[in-house]
Design goal:
single chain, about 350 residues, Enolase-like, domain 1, TIM Barrel, about 40% helix, about 15% strand
Length: about 350
């Protein structure tokens, strides 16, 4: 039996798009790699917002499973959550749990010499539609050039993080109706502002309008935006527990559900969210803006889930792109990496 000997946390790529990478090593010197959410980027002090999440892993979560059998992932997940309940079942604690959980899944896949998707029941899809997700650019020429780079690479849809409808008109005029546009405003607007913005873009080829209001978990306000604009709504990256997801699905506000695997507690809870998407008949579109463990874990989850619709590909170049390669892409579709574990 392999036991957990060491858990290490590294704040990887110390730039404004830092990553919290978790490595679990067994007494047999086998290693699994996972990722926790990274915090809100701080360009003035890169990596600083990742420190509290890393601390939760090192000081609260890791001591609970050191020396234990690494293969009992579900038991570890519930034991950790029960231990940490008084710290909260959302937020930073579940983010830290995500990193450990993903590392355990990666480790088990490598030990058994199978991809994680096989541990989840096997792949349902041969490929999935992918969209290029751009960072906030706030520059018309840069937006057009980055979208062109995506289109030239085979993408038929892109996501903008812009808060001016001018950018949607710009893409419509530059690329036409063939380009699908996801619009993510990260909860920037009040309800009335969100409706006004939505009405301005509703005559364009909008795939979805993402997190249109603040607070971003105001399900009733989100539903009002959907009704008043007629645009499909995507949200869920700031939900955490199964009950959270049940509530947002019961609100009937969404067309697309976007859980963030580095926030919810990893693949162990993701399996359960899959059942909710089937029960409520809603499209699953995992939210993710990093390459590496988080993206690969999202892929293994999505490929094993019948309701999966779109995969988010971080479309970043230069120093912020990180050290991990993107998964196989062709003609606007993404394919599952074929290595053992999460294939890192």
């Amino acid at each position: 039996m392999s036991t957990i000997k060491k858990i290490e946390v590294e704040i990887f790529n110390k730039n404004p798009l830092a990553q919290v990478i978790v490595t679990i090593e067994t007494n047999e010197e086998e290693k699994g790699v996972g990722e926790a959410w990274w915090g809100i980027p701080n360009p003035n002090d890169p990596g600083s917002t990742s420190i509290p999440i890393a601390s939760v892993i090192e000081n609260l979560i890791a001591p609970q499973i050191l020396g234990k059998d690494n293969s009992t992932i579900e038991k570890h997940w519930f034991d950790i959550l029960e231990y940490g309940y008084r710290y909260g079942d959302q937020g930073i604690f579940s983010m830290g749990l995500s990193g450990v959980d993903l590392a355990l899944w990666d480790l088990l896949g490598k030990q058994l010499k199978v991809p994680v998707v096989e541990l989840l029941g096997g792949a349902i899809h041969e490929s999935l539609p992918a969209y290029a997700s751009l960072p906030p650019l706030r520059d018309p020429s840069l937006v057009v050039s980055e979208v062109k780079r995506a289109v030239d690479s085979g993408f038929s849809a892109v996501k903008l993080h812009e808060i001016d409808p001018m950018y949607i008109d710009l893409l419509h005029n530059s690329f036409g109706e063939s380009l699908g546009i996801m619009v993510d405003v990260n909860g920037h607007f009040s309800l009335s502002e969100a409706v006004a913005f939505g009405e301005k873009i509703s005559n364009r080829n909008i795939v979805w309008y993402e997190e249109p209001v603040r607070p971003m978990r105001d399900h009733q306000a989100i539903k009002k935006v959907a009704i008043q604009t007629g645009i499909p709504i995507a949200a869920g990256e700031n939900e955490y527990t199964l009950n959270d997801f049940k509530q947002i699905l019961e609100s009937e506000a969404l067309t697309y559900l976007q859980p963030e695997i580095t926030k919810i507690g990893g693949l162990t809870i993701a399996k359960k969210i899959t059942r909710l998407t089937e029960l409520y008949d809603i499209a699953l579109c995992p939210h993710n803006f990093r390459s590496g463990p988080s993206l690969n874990a999202s892929l293994h989850w999505a490929f094993a889930s019948s309701k999966s619709k779109w995969i988010e590909i971080p479309w970043i170049q230069g120093e912020f792109a990180g050290s991990y390669e993107l998964p196989p892409l062709s003609n606007g579709k993404v394919f599952l990496p074929q290595g053992h574990g999460l294939d890192l």
